[in-house]
Amino acid sequence: MSDQLPEIIRDFERVPADIVKQACEFQPAILADVAGRRGALHGRIRPLRSRMKLAGPALTVEVRPGDNLMIHAAIALAQPGDVLVIDGKADQTSALMGTIMMTACRQRGIAGVVVDGAVRDSLEIDEMDYPVFSVGTNPNGPTKNIGGRIGHPVTVGGVTVRAGDFVIGDGDGVMVVEREKIESLIGPARKKVQDEARRIAAIKEGDTAASWLDGALRTAGVLKEGEKL
């Protein structure tokens, strides 16, 4: 018997719903900071509208450029709360999804779509207010002929994403955190939000000086030892 993995992996561990609920309270920017400034997808992947937000466990999909056969399969297999994370090879020559598929995603309870590729029907998706993050739009439609993979690790926006990892997106873009790691970031994220709130309050009271700046400039060789701005 072959030990080769199937093209479709149906069973994998997802970030628990209660962890998703806690983690989605934070901006992707906050989570990126406490995760060591890693996990953010390339800025080419943007929400269709800046107000759009999503969060949930990844259901990964790999397709050939311009073909969406496996995305249809992923929609059929997805669980409520999943985020489709699609490796479309950054292709913008044709759209991989449009209104019909996005409507199906919403009907099945899929939390949103992240696609390293193009979509279409953007005005209708805007009216739906369904969260979609992509590299752009193209009116040209896809084919439905070529196999791909579901549930395997993919590379989307320069970041490796595994099925079940935590995905969150807002107007800044998309951030991915490993399933095993996201719970440990909730405490540090909460502390960072509190620290930033205190700093912003101090700035509004007139304390605009960055206490760390002179030291950083000396370390960088911009200022001499003992010199100040």
TrEMBL record:
This is Putative 4-hydroxy-4-methyl-2-oxoglutarate aldolase. Signal peptide: none annotated. Its cofactor is a divalent metal cation. Coiled coil: none annotated. It comes from the Bacteria. CDD domains: RraA_family.
